[in-house]
Amino acid sequence: MVYCIEPKGEFRKFLMYTLESCGYTSEAIPSGKELLEVLEHRRPELILLDYDLPGEKGLDILDILRDSFEYVQIPVIMVSDTNDGSRKVRCFDHGADDYLSETMGKVEMIARIRAVLRRAERYQQADRAAQM
């Protein structure tokens, strides 16, 4: 399951359609606050989190996720309408696993999502092996 926290309706539809056409299930969550509520009950494989949420900052939500022992291992890809280098660096400095620009092509977007999910799976396998 991939959670999409993206306020722009058309781009959210594009993201969800793209994910589902590649075999992923996805769920739209309207805000960062609601994401945190949903996470108390269900954990996704990945979160796509918009940088500019109405009334919230995506980086603030990312900080909450990264500061929480419960959620720190959930991969988060930040999504933004700009390809600004300084914005990307801020996202990575706050703990984002990757960054998608809304102008990015579908093929690259899916390749980046797959790469993040592969890394997350490797970390989980290593954690399980270390616990044995």
From TrEMBL:
Lineage per the UniProt record: Bacteria, Bacillati, Bacillota, Clostridia, Lachnospirales
Biological source species: Candidatus Blautia stercoripullorum
PANTHER family given in the database record: RESPONSE REGULATORY DOMAIN-CONTAINING PROTEIN, STRESS RESPONSE REGULATOR PROTEIN 1
Keywords of this entry: Phosphoprotein
Pfam families: Response_reg
Positions where 4-aspartylphosphate occurs in the chain: 50
Domain Response regulatory: 1-117
Protein name listed in UniProt: Stage 0 sporulation protein A homolog
Alphabetical list of InterPro entries matching this protein: Bact_response_regulator, CheY-like_superfamily, Sig_transdc_resp-reg_receiver
